[in-house]
Structure formats: structure tokens, C-alpha cells
Design goal:
Length: 223
Amino acid sequence: MKHIGVVVFPGSNCEYDALAAMGVLGAQADFIWHSETDISGYDGVILPGGFAHGDYLRPGALARFSPVMTAVAEFANSGGAVLGICNGFQVLTEAGLLPGALQKNRGLTFLCQPTTLIVESTKSVLTRGATIGQELIVPINHFSGAYTCDDATYRALEENDQIALRYKENPNGSRGDIAGVANVGGNVVGLMPHPERAMSNLLGGADGRVLLEGFVNAPVGAR
């Protein structure tokens, strides 16, 4: 049984959703408070959505300094599977574990709606169980979700196959319709949509399942 840690920052509000999704997939999951400095006992780590540290300065800008992020960086650098969802994606970019940044949505509008994602790459721990071109309906829930990066970074993302997911119809002004990106190794992934909220056809759809199954079943990195 895989052991997944869900990091909780002051202001996180999707940690229970992530924990429940892991349980549906048969994984053992625990909360990791942001002051923890040792996460070596986990097979994977999730940074959930919410408003870490109130999103002061910028979303994720203060959370990157939490003690747990040093441990997350070490975990990621040793090959551990790390997933950032929504605010967690913002934290990973602020911490330098993923390239680019998230800015306010086009039109300065908060978005809470289903979106259709297109699987762009299967090299990441999140998309490894999907197929290229597969369409997935997964909800979004964000105000600062428009992915941005400079031209050199965008070229590198395409050349290295780091764009994991794109929006079929761009809801927020994200560059290149990007919904999720991975690091070069594919073991660190961030996305703005919420796959943990798309786990059951009884609750609006189960398209998030193929993504989180891939994450849970990813090979454990050498640590």
C-alpha cells in the first residue's frame, strides 16, 4: 500500500478532498503540517488547494518558506513523486520546483466550473496512466490560475515534453492553454484543475481518477 502525505499550510482548504481521493484509490494518506521537516516515510506528496498563508504577497509566496518545503525539495530532488493542485501548483512554482508562474485570470474573474483538459504528455507521474490526446472533464476553482512564463521557458517546456495538460478551451488566459506542467524528470507536477474533485460519476464525473491513479501508482523514487 502506497503511503501519501498531504501537506497542510495555514489556509489550505482542499486537504480533506485530497485525503479522501487517496483513500478511494487504496492508498494510506496522512496530513503533514507545514512545520514538519522530515517526510522521508512517504511514497508521494501532495500540496493541495486553498489559500496558503492567506495568499499574502502572491499565492504561494509565503508558503515556499515553510520548513516543510525544504523537505519537499529534497524529496523531489531524490526522485519522489510530488503533486501540486491549484494553490499547491502556485507553491511549487514559487519554490522553484516547477518553471513559470501563475497570475490572475484574464478579466480578473474568479472561475469555478468544469473544464475539458487534453492530455499533452504521458511522461509525468500524473499523466502516466492516460493517453496522449485523451480528454478529461475536471473542475477548476481559482482566481490566479493563468500560467505564464518567458519565451525561453516555453520553448524548453515544449522541447522537453513538460506540458502535461492543456485546456481544450482556455478559461483563464493561460499561456499556450497550459493547465499543468512537470519538471524535466516528470516526478514533480502541478496543475490548476482539481482531479480530486472528479473521482465519482455520482458527484459530477470521475475523469480525475486516471490522473490520481497514475500518481499513486508511480514508481517510488530512489531516496
